[in-house]
UniProtKB/TrEMBL annotation:
The lineage of its organism: Bacteria, Pseudomonadati, Myxococcota, Myxococcia, Myxococcales. It is found in: Cell inner membrane; Cell membrane. One of its GO terms (biological process) is transmembrane transport. The chain crosses the membrane at residues 7-29, 49-74, 86-110, 130-150, 189-211, 231-254, 283-305, 325-347, 359-380, 386-403, 447-473, 493-512. Residues 51-253, 321-512 form the ABC transmembrane type-1 domain. Belongs to the binding-protein-dependent transport system permease family. Keywords: Cell inner membrane, Cell membrane, Membrane, Transmembrane, Transmembrane helix, Transport. One of its GO terms (cellular component) is plasma membrane. It is a multi-pass membrane protein. It comes from Myxococcus stipitatus (strain DSM 14675 / JCM 12634 / Mx s8). This is Iron ABC transporter permease.
Amino acid sequence: MTRRPPVGLWVSGWVVAALAVLPAVYLVVRAAEADASTWGLLLRDRTWGLLWRTLGLAAAVTVLAAAVSLPLAWLTTRSDLPGRRVWTVLLCVPLAVPTFVSGYVLLAAFGTGGVLEEALTRWGLPVPPVYGFPGALLALTVSTYPYFFLALRAGLLSQDPAWLEGARSLGLSPARAFWKVTAPLLRPAFVSGALLVGLYVLSDFGAVALLQYDAFSRAIYVQYEGAYDRAYAALLGLALVAVTVVVLVFEVWLRGRAGYHRSSKGAARAVAPVVLGRWRVPALLLCGAVVLAGVVLPVGVLLYWGARGLAEEGGSLLAPALGSVLASVLGAVTSVVGALPLAFLAVRYPSRLTLAMERVSYAGYALPPIVLALSLVFLGVQVVPFFYGTLVMLVLAYVVRFLPQAVGTVRSSLLQLNPHLGEAAASLGQTRSSVFRRVTLPLLRPGLLAGAALVFLTAMKELPATLLLAPIGFETLATRVWSATAEGRFAEAALPALVLMAVSTLGVGLLVSQEGDAPRG
């Protein structure tokens, strides 16, 4: 097989790569057109206030998520906690809850007219604050702590028990051995979890908007919706991208170059679980409290308001459900089709250029969703107005945003596919298209389906791009939840939120089922 890619594959790869990087480039061009007065707005006190509020929220959520996740990860990996696997699954379920649903649950429970707010007021008990920083902190912590939890679990499961045993043999108590040996070795897991949680909070739009916390993403949306000159919104978007880049650079510095692997291969063996003894009940109470906040409360509140919604309006989920499925299916199929040329070029014809083209596909994923949506709005209005306000722009947003998920799965499947199979088929007289259709495509089917499923599940929860780019009158479950909650119609928002949670739980179940686990003693 020649090392030069076919012209059709080369051209399609360039087209997909150009589409992926186009929003970021256009945003820069748009911001460059801003006049001096607009740039002056970027440096005013309000912008600095937005910056500190956004960073403060990200830091607080990260610290709180780490504080919650560390004991949970230790209990489910190193102790004799009863029902460790069940607790692990339950503690991961909040991953299935979109942040705007978490915000909605807080409002529906403790907001004005909320189900628990009325009960607490009737009993003379204080009602926890849900608007502003406290609500955003709680909603985002509940939705994001599983990222930290999974990273710390993976770090604990991969540690050699001989290190801890060596520390104990030198006379260290269990607590000192943990902080002297185990905790330092968890540094990569801490950094990884902090990066995931921090970036998620920086880019979140739904929770901060519903709970009325002035972060960058909410300010960008408000500026876009309410101002005639939208160049300032573009500059705010670029500022948010700059903050994201600074966080990524800080993560690389924090990770350092220290080695955390064993010096020799060694032999895997079971970790003797720590007997909790009298700490078993407090440990169960801790796990129960987190599951209560992350699973029981959201499901209970949604079921309560869902029952009221059925009684009051009889439910009208068909249109938003069909809208979600239609847009997500189109986004998933288009993303997988777009991922094919990039994955083939990177795997079958590796070079600096093809690898760069594959990396470029991650540009849209690196942009905060609200910034990506804003750039596509500008692009649609000024460059391709005939597509603006149509389903094409929404699907394009999904493709640019979620293309890396499809590229990753297709690339992994292609790396496991022996290229000699195609060469053997070609030697029998088959054309390239026939080899692809009859040999390569059937073998790639699991990877293609996995990539499509991943994009579909993520697109079902997408909110900012759908709000800004969906055609007039086009509704999805996510936009139904957001619009109903924003107007205080909790009953109307409950059922679509429940359906979203059910669909998202499928993805979380797949994630947890594939997690490796260490042998138990």
